[in-house]
Amino acid sequence: NFLGIVPEIEKGKKSGLPQWFGDRMDWKNLADAIEESTKKLSSEEKQNSIIVANFYGHASSLEYYKSSIPVVSGHNSYFLWQNEITLTPQNYILIGKERFTNWKDYFEEVSEIGTFSRRFTKEQNIPIYLARRPRISKEELFGKLKDFRWLLTLN
Length: 155
Description:
The structure is a single chain. By secondary structure, the chain is α/β, with parallel strands linked by helices. It has helices spanning 19-22, 27-37, 43-47, 56-64, 138-145, and strands at 49-53, 71-73, 91-95, 107-116, 126-134. The radius of gyration is 16 Å and the shape is globular. Mean pLDDT is 80; it is low at 150-155.
C-alpha cells in the first residue's frame, strides 16, 4: 500500500490508498460526474429530482460541493436528514449499484446516465442512474434506504 500501513480491514485489497483514507479523496470527481450526468435533464426535471447516494460519504461530498439537487442517503445516521426533503420527487438520481439491484421494482423507468471513479480506491466506474416515476411513495422508499450496515439489497 502507498502509505506502508495496512489495517486489518484492508488486507488483500489492492488500491493506492487504504479505503478509509481514499474515501476522503476525489469528492469533486463525484460532484462533477453528477453535474455532467444530469446536464440533459430540463430545469423542471431537476427541480423534481433528488439524489440517492449509496454511502454517507457520497452524500456528504455532494452537499459539500453544493449540489443543486437535494441529496439523501440511508447509510448509517445520514437517514436522519431525509425528513428535511419536502419535495415529492418524480426523478431519483441513484449513485452506485451495491444497494440498488432491484430499483426497477420501484420505478417505471431506470437508465444509466453516467459513471464516476476514484483514483485511490477500488471504486471504479460506479454507475449513476436516473429513475423516473416512482411506484411507491417517497416515505416508503426512504424507509427501504435506512441501513446501518455497509451493504443492502432492497427486497
